[in-house]
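User: Modeling request: complex.
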Amino acid sequence: MKSKKCVAMLLAGGQGSRLGVLTGKIAKPAVPYGGKYRIIDFPLSNCTNSGIDTVGILTQYKPLELNDYVGSGKAWDLGCSDGGVHILPPYQGQQGGNWYKGTANAIYQNLEFIERYNPEYVLILSGDHIYKMDYSDMLDQHVKTNSTCTIAVLDVSLEEASRFGIMNTNEDGTIYEFEEKPKQPKSTLASMGIYIFNWSALRYYLTEDEKDENSSNDFGKNIIPAMLNAGEKLMVYRFNDYWKDVGTVESLWDANLDLLNPKLNLDLSDKNWKIYSKSTGTSPQYISDTAKVENSLITDGCEIYGNVDYSVLFKDVTVEEGATVDYSLVMPGAVIKKGAKVQYAIIAENAVVEENAVVGGDPQVVGSENWGIAVIGDNLTVGKNAVVSAGKMITENVAEGEKI
Amino acid sequence: MRTSLVAGLIFANARDSMLKKLTLNRSMASVPFGARYRVIDFALSNLVNAGVTSVGIITKENYRSLMDHVGNGIAWDLDRKNGGLYLLPPYITRNIKKYTDTVDALYGAMDYLNRCSSEYIALCDSYTLANIDISAAVKSHIEKQADITVLYSKAMLPEASAKKLVLTMDEDARIKKTTQTDAFDGAAYSIGVSIIGRELLIRIIKDAYDAEVKNFEKDVIPKSLSSLKVYGFEHKGYVAILDNTHTYYQASMALLNREVRQDLFNKERPILTKTRDDMPTKYGINSEVKNSLIADGCIIEGVVKNSIISRGVKVQKGAVVENCILMQDTVVSNGAVLNNVVADKEAVISEDVVLKGTPEHHCFVTKSQVV
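Assistant: Request completed. Predicted assembly structure:
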């Protein structure tokens, strides 16, 4: 096996429990995004665009859909015979086996995989974020500054800082302290969960961490503090572009509608930094005489006869005549029937909103205390004339005329 | 090694000259159609949807864009070790120059036919736009113990259509007579797809080539009606046949009809094409779109009505596009007005330019032209 300069390890085992019914059957990285993508397309496309051709994908929670989607990795040009993508689920060894106990333990259990490629550097990524980033630039900085570990950070506002892992740094960008969700943040540099390690150091610290029974085997909580204590050189890599964690229903909704905001630098049409996805054959979209479509993203296979405003429609969605879709995400194959009204909502895959049903509510009407994004789970039906109020998460069919 | 029962052969250049400017630098097979397809996608998908795993594409000229499009066949799952996709350009020897018709083209594909181990060959013209159940045609071919099965349609054709091979059949659909005519009101006409045993095809083509017979459909089939069992098989769905720029425009606009789309883009037998990884199409504030078929990767900020808009097209604010076919990456700048225009790939229509054709005579903008 040829040695690689850098191998990427993508942590994709998270359940994303705050996404509720949206991750009921699939892992968070497989959640649909932006009309034709899934969250995992971002780190995978970033890898291929950054010249990283070997990616281990660590899966654990509901991996079926994700495994299926990633397949051979061809869709991201990662189907190469030397390297490429490798799905790495937890496994049984001679001494039994374990689920991945934490982010660090997941990598520890796959040291053998990294060893096969004997890289100089290991890039740790997560499958939870929407962003376009050139990892090779981060790697250049890592090599140039002769660091043991480089952590990508985003400058957030002081209010937001207490929601993140914060890096306290010296003037030259070296890290002297890491604080997880500090009440009184000393800095506003938030960790993006993207790390580059020297492979030899990573192997050492993971092995040491594994010996400590009280460790939660987590990069942020254990590995980074251990390295700081040992006096290793840790540097921040500043990232100034669009980045969003899509861990909650509202942030997922936000991140999708951000695609419609020309002021945010989230251009997916950039030919020099394509976001690849696995597309399947479907016909072009059709916008009818009775339709009114404005300020929206619409994908191949959609048939639009109603009104769509400020929304993202995924592939093969039907919006019938007289139906309205405002400020919403409608995922693949969903059907919005005649006269139905969908607003401030996420309609998951293949769900059906029957005639004259109402889903979601306008924050200015329901008041901000009662407001939230309404979510209809996949393959569910909202019956005729039923009403699903703002912020409700629907996990079972809603009967005709029912009010929730 | 088990191979698929049927192998496919597609004629990529048939009727090239009839589409004029659209085929200046490309074959019939690679003419863009339906906002995200090339004409050959229909024949390729029909074959693949019938379980065909080996397809030869017979081409003679202008095949750069065709090669670009089909590549190694991955979009149709034809990137295979066993079978797969074979591009068959003229194999120039002392005997063969450039193909002039289908008989010498098939003669040139003799190596492919000899090496292929499928029992039947489905011969497909690329100019037929239809979602055809080739499995059903093969089943009928086997049940009737036919030598040749010719697929036909009785569906209405546009007035401007060129001559077709009209079939006269007995009650059992055995073909008794064929006529070349443009009067096919309700008659059964060939749609350019036929099924034939591989070994029989090899024999027929060798004989026809020696006898200097030119065309398989027009010459070989009529002469075989008494000596061979030649049957018809009806394709009952939608069909469009490209034989001139009018039928191209009409076939394109027919996609604005929901029934046509449902038939042609049948989800059970999907029409596959090379993917481009475009983002979804973005509709701007105050964009106005009516009765149009639009592919991914477009940015629509102006007015679009009754049009077919391919991948990556930009219609800027204040631009008006009506009754047009805009191929991929066309840019219509601010204030431009287009009516009855067919714009080939990457055309640029500058600000405030007005281009108006008529339904009979479309204004044509050639590839990469700046107006």
